[in-house]
């Protein structure tokens, strides 16, 4: 094949795109320096997240009004859930809920809606990370455009840490393009009614292990250290216990420890 020389205009276009990508990555990285990832390990934190959810879903027309002005469900309390608040300079800015599911720990929201697709995967011994209830404060999300990326970073970290076979995204049809672009998600089920929500939800999945290096190359702020992932997801922070665990071992040795975001 004869090599084709790039015109000056083409070279400039490539350079501009690379500069834009670099500037964006720097912006997300700068925001991460001001962020704390905190587990909702108290009633006060859960209540604050439930209020934030209600505001976000009502603003988007995703739920119906209720007198409590909060939005929660029993999946907030399962044994395999990681409910995070994301704080900027100490202020709650966003939240995401992550379930790490397996044959032994099958409780996660998307299974309720897509059992015909997901139950066979559990039966086959697959590990599934289900990220749901991604919400953000309206004011702070306008100020910090990088906030969605800093929030969704947790889902990728969980998939990486637990060596997940599926990183799920249960999303509305209009949000599919975003997830396809970021984590290489692909659609596996068209929208279905979702309990508690006013609008139907589609199901997407990503083989994060396959694309992790590509994602990290394009979005270097998604990288994390093993130490950071261990603080956020192990909950048993004994070095001896962590070293002795195998991928087939207990995924959830739940000894409480409050995580904080570490530079990675």
Task: Give short descriptive properties of this protein.
single chain, 264 residues, alpha+beta, Aminopeptidase, 7-stranded mixed beta sheet, 7 strands, 42% helix, disordered N terminus
Count of runs of 4 or more consecutive helical residues: 10
Radius of gyration in whole Å, from Cα? 19 Å
- Stretches where pLDDT is under 50 for at least 5 consecutive residues are 1-19, 238-264
Give me the strand/helix succession: HEHEEHHEHHEHEEHHH
Tally of discrete structural domains: 1
The percentage of residues in β strands lies in 15-25%
Oligomer: single chain
How would you characterize this protein structure?
It is a single chain. This protein is of the alpha+beta class. It has a single domain (16-235), classed as Aminopeptidase. It has 10 helices and 7 strands. Strands 1-2-3-4-5-7-6 form a 7-stranded mixed beta sheet, with helices on both faces. The longest helix is centred in the N-terminal third of the chain and has 25 residues, at 8-32. The radius of gyration is 19 Å and the shape is globular.
Blueprint of the fold:
Elements: H1 8-32, E1 35-39, H2 43-59, E2 81-88, E3 91-101, H3 109-113, H4 115-123, E4 128-136, H5 138-143, H6 147-161, E5 166-171, H7 176-183, E6 186-192, E7 201-206, H8 208-218, H9 226-233, H10 239-244
Parallel strand pairs: 4-5
Antiparallel strand pairs: 1-2, 2-3, 3-4, 5-7, 6-7
């Amino acid at each position: 094949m004869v090599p084709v020389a790039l015109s000056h205009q083409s070279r400039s276009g490539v350079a501009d795109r690379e500069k834009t990508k670099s500037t964006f990555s720097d912006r997300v990285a700068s925001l991460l320096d001001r962020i704390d990832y905190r587990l909702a390990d108290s009633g006060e934190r859960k209540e604050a997240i439930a209020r934030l959810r209600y505001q976000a879903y009502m603003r988007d027309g995703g739920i119906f009004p209720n007198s409590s002005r909060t939005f929660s469900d029993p999946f907030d309390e399962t044994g395999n859930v990681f409910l995070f608040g994301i704080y900027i300079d100490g202020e709650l800015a966003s939240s995401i809920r992550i379930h790490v599911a397996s044959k032994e720990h099958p409780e996660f929201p998307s299974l309720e809606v897509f059992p015909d697709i997901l139950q066979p995967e559990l039966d086959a011994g697959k590990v599934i990370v289900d990220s749901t209830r991604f919400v953000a404060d309206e004011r702070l999300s306008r100020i910090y455009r990088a906030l969605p990326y800093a929030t969704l970073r947790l889902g990728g970290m969980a998939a990486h840490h637990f060596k997940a076979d599926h990183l799920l995204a249960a999303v509305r049809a209009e949000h599919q393009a975003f997830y396809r672009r970021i984590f290489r998600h692909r659609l596996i089920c068209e929208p279905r009614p979702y309990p508690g929500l006013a609008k139907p939800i589609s199901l997407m999945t990503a083989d994060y292990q396959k694309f992790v290096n590509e994602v990290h190359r394009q979005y270097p702020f998604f990288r994390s250290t093993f130490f950071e992932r261990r603080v956020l997801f192990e909950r048993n922070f004994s070095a001896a216990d962590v070293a002795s665990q195998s991928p087939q071992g207990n995924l959830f040795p739940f000894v409480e420890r409050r995580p904080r975001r570490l530079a990675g």
